[in-house]
Structure formats: C-alpha cells, structure tokens
Amino acid sequence: MSLSSLDNLYRQMILEHADRPHHHGNLPAADKQIELCNPTCGDVLELEVKLDDEGKIADIAFNGTGCTISQASASMMTDEVIGKTPAQVGEMVEAFSEMITKNEDKDYEDLLGDAVVLEGVAQFPARIKCATLAWKAIYQALEKEGKAHE
C-alpha cells in the first residue's frame, strides 16, 4: 500500500470515529467522572468510568463537544482502555503522549491499537492538545484515587 493510500485510510478512520464515536453517551453508576476543557480551541470532554471488582475498566463513556481530532481520539481511547487496569492505562497514556509529541520512530500499535492513526497529529502542534484531551481525562480520572500507577 502506498504512503498516500495509507494516509487516506488513516484519515478515513479518524473521520469515522468522529462521525460515529464509540462509547459516546452517559454511563449509569459511574465510579469515576471528570470534565476537562481545552481552552485553546474550546473542546470539552466529560468522561465517566465504571470499574469492575478487580479494578479494571468495565465500561466507559464520554460526552462533550470538540473538533474531529478530539472526538476521534476520545472514541479510540475508549475502545482501547476497556478491560485494562489503571496501571496499564497509565502506560498507554504515556505512550500516546510520547507518540504525538516526540514523533519517535517507534511501534506503538501493540499498546495503543487503532489510536496509532493519530500519530500524524505530531505534524500539527496546534492539534496536539485536541488529541491528548481524552487521554489526559482518563489518566486524571484514575489518578484521583491513586490508581493510575498501581
């Protein structure tokens, strides 16, 4: 597959997640809730998390408004963190941040799944905060209880 075909596929995935976000809505009986805002562009994200008896993420939902990158990133993040422990989520958040801020030639797919398609955001510094908003939200929601580094 040519590089331009791969870029088009990635763009299509981002648009699909933004147009039809996964886990969008409210979560009854959430254990953790957080709202974050990106003051630079006005993106707002409300995140709700339900943990199972083992402390893993059993379910997650998000609401809010934002640009295509923000909404797509939130959708992809919610897909990837279900079933993960707070410690695993912490690793994922660190890897995601590294991927789009340092732009290192590293393979993040095993850890981040489909969210690796957002790697190209590194080329657009103004969009980095949009892409990281949901990842910061999940980290902070779990960290509030001291759970992000267990």
Automatic annotation (TrEMBL):
UniProt family annotation: Belongs to the NifU family.
Gene Ontology MF terms: iron ion binding; iron-sulfur cluster binding
Lineage, top ranks: Bacteria, Bacillati, Bacillota, Bacilli, Lactobacillales
Species: Ligilactobacillus murinus
Domain NIF system FeS cluster assembly NifU N-terminal: 10-130
Biological processes annotated in GO: iron-sulfur cluster assembly
NCBIfam families per the UniProt record, alphabetical: SUF_scaf_2
UniProt superkingdom: Bacteria
Pfam families the UniProt entry points to: NifU_N
Name of protein: SUF system NifU family Fe-S cluster assembly protein
InterPro entries registered for this protein in UniProt: NIF_FeS_clus_asmbl_NifU_N (IPR002871)
